[in-house]
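Researcher: Last one for today. Full complex below.
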Amino acid sequence: MRNFILIIRRFFNLILFAGLEIICFILIAHSHTLQGDDIVSSANTVSGIVYKKQSDLVYYMGLGRMNDSLINENMRLRKLIDQYRTVDTLKDLPVKRLVTNTDTAVHIVKYADYIYRTARVINNSVENVNNYITINRGSKDGIARGMSVISGTGLVGRVEYVTAHFASVLSILSNKQQVSAKLKDGTFKSTVWDYERPDIFMMRDMPPEEKIKKGDSVFTTSFGNTFPPDVLIGTVIKTEINKKNGKQQLYLRPATNFRSLQYVYVLDNIMDVEKKQLEEQPAKK
Amino acid sequence: MNVYLKNLLRFCIIIALQVLILNNITLHWFTEPAGALFVPFIYPLFILVMPFETPVWALLFSGFAAGITVDIFMTTAGIHACATVLMAYLRTNVLNALMPRNLSEYINQQPSIKNMGWMPFLVYSGFLILLHHIVYFMIESWSFSGFGSLLLKIGASFATSMIFIIVYILLFTRQTVSRA
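Model: Here's the assembly. Have a good evening.
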C-alpha cells in the first residue's frame, strides 16, 4: 500500500496529464457524430450571453450590408408573387395557404407545411472543419433540434444544439453532413465540402455523359428528411473530368455568403411527424 | 498585486481578446486555387507567461481551463483543451532545458523577453506554440487526406500566432522608465 502511494506521488503529474487528456478525448469523441451530446457547445448559456453582447455592439456596423441583402430578398420575393399572379392560385394550390403576421418579436409566417421563424446570427465561423453558427433563438421560441436553416439567398444548415434562448446551427460547411442535391434535370447526388475554402463545394462522381453547363443551379431534395426541397444550394462554376475514374466533378459556388451572414430563417416542418409515423409503419410489421 | 489575482485577470483579458476579437479575424493564405483559412490563436500565451516556479499540476489545470473555455466559445468540444494540456505538460521541461539555473531560483519572475532574452524566449514560445498548433489541426482534420493543405494551415497559423504573441508581449510588458 505504501509503495502504491509512493508511486502515485512520484508520477502524480503524469497521471494527471493522462487523465485530463482522456477527458478531452472523450469530449471530442462525443462530438464527432451528429448525434453527440451537447456538453461543450456555443449554445451554452454563458457563451450565448457573451456573444449576444458582442453582437449588439457590432450590430450597427453591419446595417448597410444587411439592408442590401434584405432589398435583394424583397426583389426575389416580389418576382415570385408576380409569377403567382398569372396562375389561378385558388384552384391549383394543393394545401390551404394561411398567412398570419403577429406583432411579437418572432414573426411567424405559415405557408403550406412549413413555419418560418426569423433569427439573428450572433456568432459565425467559416475556418474550421465543422463550422457552427450561433443564433439568438432557442427552445422558448420554438426552435428544436434537427430543424433546417436557410438564409434569404440559399441553404445554411441544420439546428444541432438548443438551449432556452440560443441555438447552434451546424452549417453545410462541414464534413459531418452531406447535402442531397439535384440539378435542374433531376440528377441526384450529394454535395461535399473539402474544408479548404468557404466558397467552394464539390459534387463528385457525376456521370460523364451528363451535359452540365457553367451557371447551372443546384437545389436541395427532400430525401433524408433533413432539408426542405428546392432550396438553392449554389451554382456550378467549373466542371472537370476526374482522370482516375473518368467521372465528372462539379465545383459549386454556394448561394449563401457564409462570411457575412446576418439573418436566417429557421424552418419547422409541421408535417414531419406525420410523415415519419407513416414511414415507420411497414417497419413494425 | 497578488500573483493569483494578476494571473486570473490576465486569463480573462486573453480569453476575451481571443473570443471577441481574434475569432472574428479570418485570415487566408493562398486561397486560390487551394490554401489555408484560419484564425490566429493567442490564448496559449496564458500558459507561456505563468510564473517560473508554478508547479506542473497547476499548469495542467489552468491549461485545461483555458482550453475548455475557448472550446465552449468555438464549439470545438475538447480539441483546444487537448492541445493546451499537452503544451502545459511540456512547458517545465522546455524551460529547464533553456534556463541556466534551476527554475525554483527565479522567484516572482515570469518568462518574458526581459527575463530570458530574445533568442531563448522565441525558441521557448515557438516550440510550444508549434506543438499546440500541430496537435490542434491534426485532431481537427482527423485524417491525412489533405496533408499539404494541413501543413500549410499549420505553418500559416503558427507564423501569425507568433506575430500576435510577440506584439502582445511587447505591448504589455512593463518598461523601466529612465529618469535622466
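Residues 68 and 81 of chain B are 5 Å apart (CA to CA). Chain B has seven helices and two strands.
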